[in-house]
Amino acid sequence: MQTSNRVLIIGLDGADWRVLRPYLNDGIMPNLAHMIETGVSGTLRSTIPTHSAVAWASFMTGRNPGKHAVYDFMQRAPGDPTRMVGANSRSLRSETFFDVLAKHGRQIGAINVPMTYPPFPVHGFMLGGMSVHEGKPYTFPESLVGELEDRVGGFPVNRIRWRYTLGRWEELLDEAIEVTKQRAHVLKYLIDYKDWDVLIQVFVSPDRLQHPLMHILDSEHPFYDDALAQRLKPKLCVYFKLMDDILGRSQQQVGKDAALMVISDHGFRSVHKSIRIPEILGKHGLLKTRPRAAAIRLSRKRLLRPVARWIRTAFPAVFPASNRNVGSPMQMTGLVWPQTQAYVTTNTSQGIYVNLKGREPQGIVTPGDAYEHLLDNIQEILLAERDPANGQPLIESVMRGKDSYVGPWVELAPDVLFVPSPGYMPAREAHLQSLRWQRGDHDLDGIFVTAGPGIKCGGKIDGAALVDVAPTVLYLTGAPIPEDMDGQVLDIFADQRLTSIPPKYEKSRPADYEAAEYTYTQEEELQIEEQLRSLGYF
Ligand SMILES: [Zn+2]
Question: Exposed site from 9, 170, 383, 488, fewest CB < 10 Å?
Answer without folding.
Answer: 170
